[in-house]
Amino acid sequence: MSKCTGCPHAGKYAFCNLGQAAQAFLDVNSITMEYPRGNVLFREGESAGAVFIVCSGKVKSTATSTEGRSAILRLSGPGDVLGMSAVLGATPYEITAEAVQPCRIRVLHARVLHQFMREFSDASMGAARALAQDYRSAFQEMRLMALPETPAGRLSRLILDWSEESQTTGTPLTMTLTHEELASMTATTRETVTRTLSRLRKDGAIAIKGISLTVLKPATLHDLASC
């Protein structure tokens, strides 16, 4: 039986929409790993030996500046593929990938990926879709950092992006990052993130219960994100 049988994400993402033969190859030649919260999948600068397909959970990607400062670039979830550009380009990993929730990951080693793409056209299309998603994510990261001029605007833009993604995937919007990590993603401070979230809750723009976040007034967030 296919390891992907019954998966709610089947048919939606880069390697989640394969033909029967390609799926069988992936099932036989990939390794399924469980990563607890805080475990690192791979580190920035390491030789790229495999791609990592997220089946469940959330993974944060961080990069380090020449001054040694670390910044969170994105949050990846089910269906996302990590390490594709580094493996295909035969370059070191550009980021560090760390589980922020317990994750189930399918690991496909580089030599197997190359064989996979040579033998199955749908695997090559899957790799192309993964690279296209990397491009879209990079554009979103630049938009997040460059367009809203205020910390409140950047945080609002991030919440809107996550809300739109949760609606697309049909999954609840959860706050899996700490306020410190949210500050890293939006180029501000933990204190500013805490104040902004408190203000948004007080204004009725969002509701937070535990780790669940609900956008109640998207227009308010859009107004802030345009500042």
Overview of the structural elements:
By secondary structure, the chain is α+β, with helices and mostly antiparallel strands. It contains 8 helices and 10 strands. The chain folds into 2 domains: 126 residues, Jelly Rolls (Sandwich); 79 residues, Winged helix-like DNA-binding domain superfamily/Winged helix DNA-binding domain (Arc Repressor Mutant, subunit A, Orthogonal Bundle). It has a 4-stranded antiparallel β-sheet. Strand 9 and strand 10 form a beta hairpin. The longest helix is centred in the middle third of the chain and has 26 residues. It holds the Pfam family HTH_Crp_2. This is cAMP-binding protein. It comes from Terriglobus roseus (strain DSM 18391 / NRRL B-41598 / KBS 63).
What secondary-structure arrangement, pairings included, does this model have?
Layout: H1 20-29, E1 31-35, E2 40-42, E3 50-56, E4 59-64, E5 70-76, E6 81-82, H2 84-89, E7 96-99, E8 103-109, H3 110-119, H4 121-146, H5 151-169, H6 179-185, H7 190-202, E9 206-209, E10 212-215, H8 218-225
Antiparallel strand pairs: 1-8, 2-7, 3-6, 3-8, 4-5, 4-7, 9-10
Helix pairs in contact: 3-4, 5-8, 6-7
Keywords: DNA-binding, Transcription, Transcription regulation
Domain HTH crp-type: 149-219
Domain Cyclic nucleotide-binding: 35-117
Brief characterization of the structure:
This protein has helices spanning 20-29, 84-89, 110-119, 121-146, 151-169, 179-185, 190-202, 218-225; strands at 31-35, 40-42, 50-56, 59-64, 70-76, 81-82, 96-99, 103-109, 206-209, 212-215.
